[in-house]
Amino acid sequence: AGKGNITIDPLRMVAKEMKFLTGNIRQLLGSGHPSLDKAAKYYTQAEGKHVRPMIVLLMSRATALAPKHPCYNGLADSVNIDKPISPSVILSDVNPSSLSTNPLTNSQSTYSEEDSDILPSQRRLAEITELIHTASLLHDDVIDHSTSRRGSPSANIEFGNKMAVLAGDFLLGRASVALARLRDPEVTELLATVIANLVEGEFMQLKNTASDEKHPVWTEEAISYYLQKTYLKSASLISKSCRAAALLGSSDSITVEAAYSYGKNLGLAFQLVDDMLDYTISGAELGKPAGADLELGLATAPLLFAWKSNGELGSLVGRKFSGEGDVARARALVLQSDGLDQTRALAQEYVSRAIAAISHFPDSEAKDGLVEMAIETLKRRK
Ligand code: FPP
Ligand code: MG
Ligand code: MG
């Protein structure tokens, strides 16, 4: 992708910081218990897309140049985020050697040496964001009975449901410790709210009001319920971590709101595209099962738009596509309709709003990177 003849590569702009991301995350996840250690680090092995930490780092850099909060004293980042996390007392009692092998006992996170306009606390925020996301994937794959993730067997298949859930909980625990170390109550509150929002979004998805009826009829409410759910399950993490990045950089309130608005609109677009890809891309290319949403009884945007023009879908929604041939029928009706086009158009609208939200930021490479991230959201195939 390019602007004129200058190529914009968002990853290149934060490559130095991204290089240490996975190593630092794995360090945060060390446990003296070998099988917990293995399960907790499992999803850090395959290279994920790391979209969320990249956005946090780009937002940190882009807002570094924006106006500061009036109380800013130039000492934005004096906290020590690297105090070692003590290993579990009970485990080290059982097996004292785990103390010396626990990578957290002499924890020193690695960040690039060179001076950077991205603060250590903002880099740690990027890691926390990825940790929370990964925890939600561990739980999600249990809930969705998924069999693959990032091209490998999912954690629930590799370790079983119980260990996958506990590994997810462990990630949230370590993310919370890292968050507490930032010593910023507003940022702590934001990310704690994200965790609650993820659960609320997942609950809204499980208990869909429309499909609680046998023969639901289409109303605008179906779309607004879907969008509210989508905010909670996907956009909350991106938007609130963008907001937190700006807060850690002592940005003024206009910049903080702009960062939030960028993340919210990008997060909504991101999930709309995700729900489209579930219809249009093969499982082999996605690295996870395709067509999974209908199998799970889920009516996402493409189907909701198709339903608006074809009432037949109502009864299928009503029984969550559980009848013989329902999934194939619903899929065919969606593909015949303009549901996918309407979903793409809505995603495009959110991408435009994301870009507009940061248009007043001072010009910078990082700002161009954020714009490019938004544009690429529409083009992605996995
Ligand atoms: C992926 O969606 C899942 C999420 C974005 C959030 C899932 C949230 C929970 C399971 C609640 C528990 C949360 C925490 C913080 C532990 P998807 O199933 O549509 O995507 P997929 O195709 O990648 O599986
Ligand atoms: Mg899933
Ligand atoms: Mg799911």
TrEMBL record:
Decide whether keyword Metal-binding is in the record: yes
Q: What Gene Ontology terms describe what this protein does at the molecular function level?
A: metal ion binding; prenyltransferase activity
* GO terms, biological process: alcohol biosynthetic process; isoprenoid biosynthetic process; mycotoxin biosynthetic process; ubiquinone biosynthetic process
Q: Supply the alphabetized keyword list.
A: Isoprene biosynthesis, Magnesium, Metal-binding, Transferase
Q: Which GO terms describe its cellular component?
A: transferase complex
Q: Where is the composition biased (Polar residues)?
A: 96-111
Q: Residue ranges of region Disordered? A: 96-117
Q: Which cofactor does it need?
A: Mg(2+)
Origin: domain of life = Eukaryota
Q: Which family does the record claim for this protein?
A: Belongs to the FPP/GGPP synthase family.
In Swiss-Prot or TrEMBL terms, this protein is called Decaprenyl-diphosphate synthase-like protein subunit 1
- Please report the organism this UniProt entry assigns to the protein: Calycina marina
Q: Which residues of the full protein are shown?
A: 75 to 456 of 456
